[in-house]
Design brief:
Aspartate Aminotransferase, domain 1, transaminase activity, binds pyridoxal-5'-phosphate, Aspartate Aminotransferase, domain 2, EC 2.6.1.-
Length: 400
């Protein structure tokens, strides 16, 4: 009998990975697919960061590290939070994990019990509800549609909080919508949270540096310092420094929580990869030009994508303020039929038909908890993006 853990058995595998599996299958069959599914920058890790990793290997930094991370990196992380986010924590108030994803997993696994609720604004990053599920707790999904620019309002937050609420998860800039919360918007949410002292806040700031139009990034513990004692501010090197494969994420927050996460991590991975920690140290303390250069590239791509998508009949998209995703409504394509005879009833049908008939891969909004939309990642060179949009345009014109 193949009996699984009950929480794992009812969790879903990642929806983005499922689409990527379909892409791999079509490619193996010889199709030339342009994939707009990727959740990672298309750039290489900067040279000085790679060099630091090679030095780490050659200098013998190849052993177990302290569970919460090497001191130099934790000091650099405390500096980063001070410098960029106005958060004044000691290096002891930080933790390094194997990716931002493990920060989230550790935090939720360390604190959630059966019956606890986690407020997850939708559309959400696919992993939040699944991690909550794996921890045996309950996600409370709060729909945040285009009328509120895909953002949680204080009214919606008040309505979602119950005595069982343990966490609120915030993510700005957002995956999948690119929405960015302003200082005022965070302050309004903070006011609700101040009135509900039993709620912890997980601020997922992984896209912090991918923010456009000269907007400023804010994180909620900075906007409302009285929330510092119950906010876990999470970040990492994956998106900012094109280091997704290095698996380094980090956080700052209340010491009791960090200690619990460290205890869990001590029985799980024993800590993040020593070599990657040295690479992340170089990323945080070295030149920051890469961040500014890639931001400009992404902003140019965003402008092109938004225009091309809005020129496509059946699609419409607002201008995302950050990350590298456009979240386009495909409502105008529903009810139509493709040349191959498929009736498009849902956004999943649209995404599947785009893959099968236009050779372009995108992820349906329903995977992120809001339909009918398509998440279109533009972490790809301009030519490929243009070709993909043209293929989507031809597909749209061919619908009956
Ligand atoms: N948070 C969000 C919103 C993400 O989109 C991702 C990656 O896709 C992560 C966290 C995790 O990033 P990593 O585990 O690579 O640090």
């Amino acid at each position: 009998e193949q009996r699984l853990n009950i929480h794992l058995a009812s969790a879903k595998s990642s929806a983005t990975y499922r689409v990527m599996d379909r892409v791999a299958a079509r490619r193996a069959a010889g199709a030339k697919i342009i994939s707009l599914c990727a959740g990672e920058p298309d750039f290489d890790t900067p040279t000085h960061i790679r060099a630091a990793a090679i030095s780490a290997i050659n200098n013998g930094h190849t052993r177990y590290t302290q569970v919460a991370g090497i001191r130099a990196l934790r000091e650099a992380i405390a500096d980063k939070f001070r410098r960029e986010n106005g958060l004044d924590f000691d290096w002891q108030d930080t933790i390094v994990c194997s990716g931002g994803k493990q920060v989230i997993f550790n935090a939720l696994a360390a604190t959630l019990n059966q019956g606890d609720e986690v407020i997850v604004p939708a559309p959400y990053w696919v992993s939040y509800p699944e991690i909550v599920q794996l921890c045996g707790a309950q996600s409370v999904i709060v729909p945040c549609g285009s009328e509120t620019s895909f953002k949680l309002t204080p009214q919606a937050l008040v309505a979602a909080i119950t005595p069982r609420t343990r966490w609120l998860i915030l993510n700005s800039p957002s995956n999948p919508t690119g929405a960015v919360y302003s200082h005022e918007e965070l302050a309004a949410l903070a006011e609700v949270l101040l009135a509900n002292p039993h709620v912890l806040v997980l601020s997922d700031d992984i896209y912090e540096h991918l923010i456009f139009d000269d907007a400023r990034f804010y994180t909620i513990a900075q906007v409302e310092p009285r929330l510092e004692e119950r906010t876990l501010t999470m970040n990492g090197v994956s998106k900012a420094y094109a280091m997704t494969g290095w698996r380094i994420g980090f956080a700052t927050g209340p010491r009791w929580l960090l200690e619990a996460m460290e205890k869990l991590q001590g029985q799980q991975t024993s800590g993040a990869c020593s070599i990657s920690q040295h690479a992340a140290l170089a990323a945080l303390t070295g030149p920051q030009d890469f961040i500014h250069e890639t931001r400009a590239v992404f902003e140019g791509r965003r402008n092109m994508m938004v225009q091309m998508l809005n020129d496509t009949p059946g699609l419409s998209c607002t201008v995302p303020g950050g990350a590298f995703y456009a979240f386009a409504s495909c409502e105008g394509m529903l009810g139509r039929t493709t040349p191959a005879g498929t009736l498009l009833a849902t956004d999943e049908d649209v995404a599947n038909a785009l893959l099968d008939e236009a050779n372009v891969a995108v992820v349906p909004g329903s995977a992120f908890g809001l339909a009918p939309y398509l998440r279109i990642a533009y972490a790809l060179d301009n030519d490929s993006l243009k070709q993909a949009c043209e293929a989507i345009g031809r597909f749209s014109h061919s619908l009956r």
